[in-house]
Amino acid sequence: MNTFNIGEVLTRAWNIVWKHKVLWVFGIFAVFARGGGGGSGGGGSNSGYDMGSGDIPFPTDQLERNFNQFGQFLEQNWWIFIVIGLVIIILSILFYALGIMGRIGLIQGVLKVEKGAETLTFAELWSESMPYFWRIFGLNFLLGLAVFLLIIPLVLFGAITAGIGFLCILPLICILIPISWVVMVVVEQAQPAIIAENLGMLDGFKRGWEIVKNNGVNFFLLVLIIFIGGGIISFIIALPIIFAVVPLVLGANSLDQTLTPVYIALACCAVYLPVLYLFSGILNAYIQSVWTLTYLRLTKPSEDETPIFAEANA
To answer: Does the predicted model carry a pTM greater than 0.90?
Structure first.
């Protein structure tokens, strides 16, 4: 049975990511394939405003007039909004596909380095990642579809029962959360298995499940480290955004006099956005490298270590 050194994997992953900075680019791409909308967190901070009072920076009748004009424009140019919706859907698909390519490129880069590659180039990683696109895309798409089909009935049940249903299904939700973590870990092992062993989607998922099932304790510890460590680092990365938005929330009552603080906060967020993506890309590259190295360490044949002892005794 293979011995698994978590410290060695974490250290090796950082050495790879720091030395081969082209992986940062693929890490930035991979951000687009990560779930979790962290970009829409500060909306609704002025929900306490009385729209009939003087707490808004423009008259209520002007607001009503603008809404009426917008409604007329919508009736006369409805096709524009359909086009905008289609463009948003197409761009979402393209960005998600770019994220999948980033994820594959990261796995390919780590595999190549572990095979002895001294340098990595963007073009090389991109071209070698293309043959695996549809398999990795299909694996993640089917998983997302399964989650969607599972969540929608639960949400509808809770809405139909006026929220009472959510209390009834709360135990089920508590069970589904750890199950979703296990599935996530299986996918993280299935992806490098598909690429390294040239497997299909289902065979890759089975391979990932086999690895996770046989190394449950190792993955439990690794998930704790990645979730806690990654969460702390993500919070630190997001601190400038938080510092820009929190004063607006706390001082929302003063916005009836001027919107200058809003403009300043938006400008600060816009300036920091490239830095945010850079740091998120590096973190993404590191975490994906950890998962790939974990796969390599846990699937390494035990016979590989036998010649070493034989040579030492010779």
So the answer is: no
